Amino acid sequence: MTSSSRHAAPPEGGHAEDTARAFWERIYAGRTTPPSGRPSEVLTRFAEGRTPGRALELGCARGDDAIWLAQRGWMVTGVDISETALEAARVAASAAGVAGHVQFERHDLGERFLPGTFDLVTALFLQSPMPFGRTQVLRRAAQAVGAGGLLLLVTHGSRAPWSWRAPDTVYPSAADELAALALAPAQWREVFVGSLSRTAFGPSGEQASVLDTIVAIERR
User: Fold this and answer.
1) What is the pTM of this model?
2) pLDDT category of residue 3 using cuts at 50, 70 and 90
3) Strand order from edge to edge, sheet including 188-201
């Protein structure tokens, strides 16, 4: 479940009768090009050089980030609500030769979170026009980070021209995102809490400069 600019943006809103799963199945069923194979810039920035361990990616879409991690020795679990997206991810992982290092599972994170702890938990653009209890999901993501592990959250900090969001959308700051997690400060070290700009690419080849809001924190 993602509205990442690495993918074509979903259409404005959703049909009233949609469930979240039906909505995202329809979105990914409409993808006509294969996954790009390119990891997110923010993932490479904050995960490069970390000692590989167990990683959990929430909203893995078609698997580009999970595959990049697996290629660097991580044992990765990628989670998404769309089985169509996950099947594309499995095919891409097999083609990349890392199927033994990554598994893709379908979960509705608003209903069930995965058990266990991880050395890296990512939620990159885990945003949706369909409500799913995002704040509670991200709090559970923080609980899943083991000692010394990294939690990496990225959200849209500005509106791309092709976005499904309203033009007057107000985007929370990184400080707001961190505060919403309600974490005990003594248990975490801030690696980076702020915004970074990047060039985003739209569904028809458009380009625009956008802001990413980033919370990268490490459990002590």
Assistant:
1) 0.88
2) very low
3) 102-106, 75-80, 54-58, 118-124, 145-156, 207-219, 188-201
Q: pLDDT at position 33, please?
A: 77
Task: Evaluate if residue 60 carries a pLDDT over 60.
Answer: yes
By the 8 A CB rule, do 93 and 73 touch? Answer: no
Contact by Cβ (8 Å): 134, 161: no
Residues 6 or more apart in contact with residue 92 via CB below 8 angstroms: 34, 35, 37, 62, 63, 64, 67
Work out the number of other CB atoms within 10 angstroms of the CB of residue 116: 9
CB-based burial label for 7 (10 Å; 0-12, 13-18, 19+): buried
- What pLDDT does 125 receive? 93
* 11-49 confidence digits (pLDDT tens): 444 443 458 888 889 888 877 777 788 999 999 999 999
154: Cα within 13 Å, side-chain hemisphere: 29
Nearest CA to 195 among 3, 42, 49? 42
The stretch 176-191 carries a mean pLDDT of 98
Q: Do the beta carbons of residue 65 and residue 44 sit within 8 Å?
A: no
Residues ≥6 apart with Cβ < 8 Å to 66: 55, 57, 60, 76, 78, 89, 93, 102, 104
Report the pLDDT value the prediction gives residue 131, as an integer from 0 to 100: 75
